[in-house]
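Hey, can you fold this one?
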Amino acid sequence: MMALKRAVDVFRLVDAEANLQMVAIFIAVCQRDGITMKELTTDLEISQSSLSRNVQALNDKPRRGKSGLGLVRTDEDPNDWRRKIVILTARGRQLRAQLSEAIG
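Sure. Predicted structure:
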């Protein structure tokens, strides 16, 4: 439980308003860079709408008048244009390293 708290604390240095679902999504992408949106909904047992909202916040797209975090990007799956894959950006990889260090 302490590792999760440390992860949330590190993540909140990037976004003080981050919710636990956003942190969980980011950690899932860190574990499986290139994971599909569908896999994320299944693995984390969250709705497509919640996933989309949180991935948009993690992306570089503006949300509610705020800039996105720029931690991930979404691309079309080269094998199936209907599927979207979530990939860490350079900033996301830096945060992943910080989280790994904090969690131990």
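Strands lie at 35-36, 72-77, 80-88. Let me know if you want another pass with a different chain boundary.
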